[in-house]
Every structure is written in structure tokens, then in C-alpha cells.
Amino acid sequence: MGMVLADPVMLEKLAASMDRTAKEIPALRRKASELDVLSEVGHLSPLLSYLNETARELRKKAGILRTPSESPFGALAQYGLPAGLARKPGAGKEFEAGLKKVLAKYETAVPEARARAVKDYVEGLTPEQQAALVVADPATVGNLDGVPPPLRFAANRISIQRQYEKEKRHLEGLAADGPASHRSLVRLKALAQFLAPRTQKTRNPKDGSPVYSDVPRQFLVFQPDAGSVADPEQSPFADGKIAEVVGNLETAKDVAFRIPGITNRLDNFHGFTQGAFDLMADPKGFERTDGAVVSWLGYDTPELGDSIDPAKAEAGGRDLGVFRRGIDVNLRPDVTTGIFAHSYGTLVTSKALQYGMDDVNKVVFMGSPGLGPNIRSMADFDMPNTQFFAMRAPEDVVSYTQGHGGDPADFPDAIRLGTKGAVGHSEYYTLGKGGLGNLRRVFAGENDQLETTDTTLDEEMIGATEVRSLVGFLQERLTPDEVARLGGDIDPIAQGVVSGRMGFTDAAAPLYTSLKDHDLLDKVPPSELFSEVTSLASDVAAKETNKRMLAGGSSEEKAILYAGAAKAASWGLAEVVTQPLEVAAKGTRAVNNWTQFAEVLAEGDLNTETWKKSLDKGSDAVTATVDLLNPF
Questions:
Q1: Angular region, 270: left φ>0, alpha ψ -120 to 50, beta rest
Q2: CB count, 10 Å around CB of 237?
Q3: Using an 8 Å Cβ cutoff, are 392 and 407 in contact?
Q4: Which of 101, 344, 421, 475 could form a disulfide with 261 if both were Cys (CB 3.0 to 4.6 A apart)?
């Protein structure tokens, strides 16, 4: 039977009991030392660590479960909405019915027209009637474009509270030490944090001193049941869709929409939305008062296994376009808007732009796997009045692979922004790095202060060019669907090469295994695969040797000479590694071929008795077949 986690008092009592036990352990160790039997109580040290760690974890869970329960009327008060009429049972039904009529009338209208009609209807109600509508149908109001943002914030706060209570009940029946409990607790903690206020740091207009305020968080979207279920064994709840606003959306002169990449979902949304708070802040941490940032997780993000498949980007792009066009009715007429997209989110953004999301002033693509095979330059979007920027940090394997087309950081008509200090795929918003500084300047329109770069792949990381070549080698031989099937295998291999955990020759075996498992060896013969891997490995060896020789003070001529020697030596070594794999591959394919031949014989008209007798005597498939064809 699982521990009942819904009682924070019980958890705190249990933690206190562990504390008392932990305090007795040092005295026991001292006594054991006096009796010269310390070796007999060696288990006490790990027990002490266990008690302390478990007590801390129990207190943390108790803190989560102590989240105050808030009534719908409390949610209204958070955003300055009157609760008088809303307290009357059924008071909002009339206004809910009126909203449904508007939605039915504009069901097939374009997003802007539909949102405008919704806005006109809701703003035609008194504040008391609006509040009653929020309480009557928070799930609809909270996710409906055209509804004034404060009403959406209040509605979604009600929905978050209800979802919190639902998932809290689910957690009660789970074993405390199981993976499902951990995943559910993480998600419950996220929901609790959505309900908690955040601290806002602004400047005092009189003297510039910092002013700290606790303000409620603002969610424009909250759909906890939307999307796929990433891991049904750990949690029955869907990944969810959610969008949060930092700043005043209706008065901001600059509005940024942030689009995330793979593996983002409701329970780890904080890791993504933190970038919005950092984007809104200046180097001293003061929050802009004339801007707003929307962190939009409004599509079903892929996991690692389907990140090479563009299907979710297609759907996400359409949803992003609808959201952007719908929210426009709540923005200033002279607003400047920007899209800040990361990773797979750049592909989502590309699709949205191609589907007609042209009311965007600037777009930033960060760590992009490609914008689709049909986008080879920013001019392909046919948006001459939009500024396009691109970022690629050193060692960003996602950009190196070009899994979805050309890397926008290589497009000549994109402004390539520097990422000084940032490394890898996830540091574009990191405090103190050059990437965040550039993003803030783009957001504020300070283009004259941007820091640009034109580094090549080899300058960023030796092996990056070869990773890109290896992926291109596979893409040339496979259809997009076949590449998508391999996607979950290719990604960790590429990341392993870039991170230094494996070399190119180490990648040969898992690549071969993946192709074999997906029955693609006819498309990518082992001989070609291993030849390509051998060639790329030798190129990396040559570049690495050249770099080290020059760094050590050698002349350029000497560095080139040694690089050539390293290339030759590496080629020979790589062949030693890959040749056994190739031989094994041929053997495996031969066995498969003879097995299929046997099935044909068994179903055909040929006399197979000779063949079978030969096999019974211990002959291999080749000899048995020769016996069959030459029975005399």
C-alpha cells in the first residue's frame, strides 16, 4: 500500500522522527569507537545520510501539499475582478450562452474576425458580468482568443487550482518510492508554482531604486489534457499546453513570442519560461515596463524519438499562426512583435510563416535543426519587411545535423548573432552569456548594438563539419520517412560524437545496428557506411592534429605535414575497426538471404528432399543449395 502523501502534517511528523534518530547516530559512533567496535557499525554513516536526505524530501513534499486552496472568487480578486455577481449560483449561464452563440456564428471565420467578435461581446458586458462568465466556464474563457487578458488569467488560475486538486488526489494512491510518484510529484509541484506569486523587480521612477512586488502569474493558455502522454507508465496525464505572459500585454510597445523545442511539457515548463523573465530584465535584473513576453507552449512537442519527424511542426505551425493572429486584437495598434524560436520550435515557426503568419516584425532562430527542405534563404519566406536573425552556439549538435534542412545561421541574408560564452544547445538564454545580451537588444530594437559573428563549423568545433556530412550521407540515401524512423537513434549518436563521448569509428556499430533494425541496409550498404565513417574519422584526425601542432608553435607547413600523416594513420586504424563489422554485416545478410531462399523452396515445386537431407548432415545453407542444384 502506498504512503498517503496528502497529509502534510503526517509527513512533517515523520521527518521530525527521522531528525531525532539522525541526532543519535553520532553518539552511537563515539560509543562504538570507545568500545573498539567501530567497524561493526559501518552502516550508521550511510543511514545518517539516508535519514537526512529523506527528511528533507518529506518536508519538501509537505510544503508542496500545503499549497493554499483558492476559491474561484479568490482567483478573480488576484486580477482585480469583482466577485459579487459571480457568487450567485448560475449567474454566469446567461453570458456563457451568449458567448457560445458568438462562437457558433463565427465558427468558420478567420482567427482575427473570430477574436474580434469575442472581444466585442465580452467587452460589452459589465465587469460583474465578465467575472460571472469567468467562473461559469473557465476552461473556455481561459483559452479563447479575443477575451481580454485579465479575464483569461483569472479563468486559467481557476483551472490550474482544479487541476492541482485532481492530480493531488491521484498522487495519494501512489507508492512514495516509485517512478510514477516522482513524475506526478514534479508535475504537482509545477502546478503549485503556477499558483504562487512571482517577485517582480522594477525601478522606482523617483530615484531609480529597486522596488520588489509579489504579483500573480499570468497564463493565457492552460490545457492540461492536450497533447500526447510522454510516458504512460509514469503518469496518465498528457503533456499539456500552456502559455504565460510576463508584462502588460495590452499596453506593451514590444511583444516577444517564445517558441520552444522538443521534450517541453507542462511539468518542466518552468525551465522554459525562465527565459521570458531573463529576456524582460536588464543586466541589473530590472524588469521592463514597456514590453511583454509570451512563452507559448501551445503545440505537442516531440520527444527524442520523433524529433526528426516534421509532422508535429506542421500542426504546431498552424496553431501558432492562429494564436498570433487571434491575440492581435488585444495588442496596441503600433506594437512591434517578434518571434524568438529555439530548436524544433524554429521549424514550427517556419511552418507558421509559410502558412501566412506575416504580421511579425522580427524573427530569431536559435539552435535550428533546419527550417524545412524548401527554405534555403530568408528570402524564401517572401517577407521583405521582417528582420531575420540566427544564432548557432559552438558545439550545438542540433544545428550541425541539419535534420530538417539548411541551418539558418548559414543563410547569407540572415543577421548572424554572436553567443559569446554559450556552448551547446541550451545556453542561448543563460545569464552572463553573449546570446542573452543579443536577444535583449533584438527585443528592444537596439540593432545598432548587436554583436554579430561569422564563425565556421571548424572554428566552432572540430568534427562539426563531419557530423553534418554524416547526416547528409544518410539523408541522400533514405526517404524523409525513413530518416524519421532513424531519428531517435541518430540524435544520441550525433550528440555522442559532438560531446566527445565517442569518435566516428565508435559511431559505426550503432549506426549499422540502427539501419539493420529498421531493415534499411539495402538503402545504405555496410560497405558504403563504413567507408564514409572511415573517411570522416580520418578528416577529424587531420584537423585535430593540425590544430594541436599550430597551438604548440609549429609552422603551418609542419602542421600540414603531420595532419596528412594523421589522416593516413587514422584511415588505417578506422579500417581495422570497421572491417570486422562489415564482414559480420555481410554474414548476417547472407544468413537472412538463405533463410528467405529456404522459405521459397518449401513453398515451391522443387524437390527439396535433397536440400533437407544435406542440412540434416550438417551442411551449411550454401552447400545444401549446391547439392540441390547438382543432385548427381
A1: alpha
A2: 22
A3: yes
A4: 344
Q: How buried is 506 (Cβ within 10 angstroms: 0-12 exposed, 13-18 middle, 19+ buried)?
A: middle
- The amino acid at 245: V
* Helix extents (H) in 79-173: 93-105, 111-123, 127-136, 138-141, 149-172
The β-bridge partners of 417 are 391, 452
pLDDT digits (tens, 9 = 90+) for 50-83: 888 787 777 766 665 566 578 999 999 999 999 9
Contacts of 66 (CB under 8 A, 6+ apart): 8
Instruction: Look up the pTM and report it.
Output: 0.80
Instruction: Report, in this order, helix, strand and coil percent for the chain, each rounded to 5.
Output: 55, 10, 35
Q: Which tens digit of pLDDT belongs to each residue from 261-303? A: 998 999 999 999 999 999 999 888 999 999 999 999 999 998 8
In b/e form, how buried is each residue of 68-95, taking b as 16+ CB within 10 angstroms?
eebebbebbebbebbbebbeeeebbeeb
164-214 pLDDT, tens digit each: 999 988 888 777 777 777 788 888 999 999 999 998 999 988 888 889 989
